[in-house]
Amino acid sequence: MNKMTLQQLINISFLEEQVKNEVISKMPSLTDDQKMALEELCWKNLIDWFSIKYEAEKEKMMLQMAQGDAEYKPEDFEAAKDKLLTELLVKISEVKTNDELAAVKQQLKEKLTPQAVSEQQAN
Question: Which is nearest to 46 in space by CA: 73, 99, 8, 74?
Answer without folding.
Answer: 8
